[in-house]
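[job 4471] stage=fold_predict status=RUNNING
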Amino acid sequence: MKILLTAGPTREYLDDVRYLSNASSGRMGYALAQAGLDAGHEVVLLSGPVDLVPPEGCDFRPVVTTAEMRAAAVELFPDCDGVIAAAAVCDYTPRVRTTGKMTKTGEPITIELIETDDVLAQLGATRGHRWVIGFALEAENARENALQKLRAKNCDAVVLNGPSAIGSETNEVQLLGPQGETLQEWSGSKTGIASSLIRWIDENLASPT
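[job 4471] inference complete, writing structure tokens
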């Protein structure tokens, strides 16, 4: 089986120096890449900027912006059996990127933001026979928001976790199904959770050979 994995944050630049991003470490995505390799699968790791070394044996594709991640994912997905979208992509980007470096003026500034293209939604809309697993990091109305994401983006299941997962080596997650059911609950190291998720995919989504 060939798995496409998105991991890490993306960056959206205000000027040539400053950018919007988030504190995602990429640990969950990289742990999933290693777990996929350990299970004997091919792994294409599409990663935003992180301070991690890609697992040996994966097809590593670095990107920076959400647009770059979307373009690469759309190109790579047709040749894969499924995708695990663990990346924490930026939801907004400046309408206008300033050339050079913005200079302080002593006055307030206003920056107009627009939504970025939705990487997971595009993959879900073009999935065909492929399986799709999303990640949802939610703080309020967590379960409801995760299920809305699952259905809107045409996922087979979504991994729900909270803000405490950011930058941590451990996590506590629920795997939710399309009928709103809790399929699995896992807690502990991200490495252990990654192995459990890959095993669940093997048992429930992988096509028999």
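[job 4471] summary: The helical segments are 27-38, 66-76, 119-125, 142-152, 190-204.
[job 4471] exit 0
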